[in-house]
Amino acid sequence: MAEAGFSVTVPATTANLGPGFDHLGLALSLKMKIEATPALAWFIQYHDKEYASLPTDETNLIVQTIQQTAARYDQAVAPQKLVVYSDIPLGKGLGSSATAIAAGIEIANELADLQLSKLDKLCIGSEMEGHADNVTAALLGGMTVSYFTEEEMEVLTFPAPPIGVVIMVPPVALKTETSRGLLPEYLTHKEAIRGSAAGSLMTAAIANSDWVTAGRMMERDIYHEPYRKIGFPNFDEIRSACREVGAYGMTISGAGPSLFIAVPPETEQQVAALLDQRFPHYQAIAMQPAENGACVTK
User: Fold this and answer.
1) CB under 8 Å to 219, separation ≥6 — which residues?
2) 113-138 pLDDT per residue, tens
3) Architecture of domain 6-158+291-297
């Protein structure tokens, strides 16, 4: 059992990239770092004001994940003080809940000496999230493509792609449950085939570093964009502006409400500045894909 303090660093993520709905994730260069030290009772201290509304006791998602992960293996963990530093916008489509879950799994693994395999961690995180896209990328880094059911899990990983990323963050957060409530219960067989083809071609294009084709396919999503785009002010205008400045493609980041824009490498700062000026009610953040996933430092 771990007694001395340690830290866990986990990247932000974006999910779907359009038609890769619920199975494609990409780690991003924004990060959450959690320092864990023994304490008499569980206490979470957030250093970022945006997280001030979150619970700081055992009801916190990170603590719940730690306890549930340990309990799966009939282990209990001693209380900790968790000091959290994060530059990941909360509830804005950048996998903040998946980051918390990934961190909790890693902390439980360390505190209870569970010696979990990568697949163990991926299965636990995906079960807790209900889908595999964000949490696999948070745990492994790079880009992940997952097949996940109650009985089976398969994950392929790709290195972080050589692109720049711009995230357009709106001023209002959107709960994932609300966003999922906008989706239809069914698609026709013909629609499903079209969506699957777009996702397959996009993934193949990314694997071949063909981001021109990948960007086009990002914008061919039929699974969620048509139903969720109504919640984004100036959605079509932003997409047109992205094309004007040479972006590969633009789509909704995860369940929203942020937008993910793939751009040629080393242009993300310039594109972010242009979009920030043109759409001031959004915050344009320049970043890159992240190679590394969750990491423990002693």
Assistant:
1) 18, 239, 249, 250, 251
2) 999 999 999 999 999 999 999 999 99
3) 2-Layer Sandwich (3.30)
CATH code at 164-287: 3.30.70.890
| Euclidean distance between the first and the last CA atom of the chain, given in angstroms as a whole number | 13
Query: Tokens 């990983």 map to which residue?
Result: 157
For the chain, the structural domain boundaries read 6-158+291-297, 164-287
* pLDDT tens digit sequence for 44-64: 999 988 899 999 999 999 999
> Is residue 166 a contact partner of residue 172, using CB atoms and an 8 Å limit?
no
Residues sharing a CB contact under 8 Å with residue 257, sequence separation 6 or more, in sequence order: 92, 93, 170, 172, 173, 174, 179, 231, 232
Closest CA to 89 of 290, 297, 296, 287: 287
Determine phi and psi for 54, rounding to 5 degrees.
-80, 150
Q: In degrees, to the nearest 5, what angle opens at C-alpha 275 toward C-alphas 270 and 279? A: 160
What is the C-alpha to C-alpha distance for residues 69 and 74, in angstroms, rounded to an integer?
9
CA 131, 55, 50, 31 torsion-angle sign: negative
- Confidence band of 255 (pLDDT split at 50, 70, 90): confident
Contact criterion met (CB below 8 Å) for 227 and 181: no
The mean pLDDT value for 168-174 works out to: 76
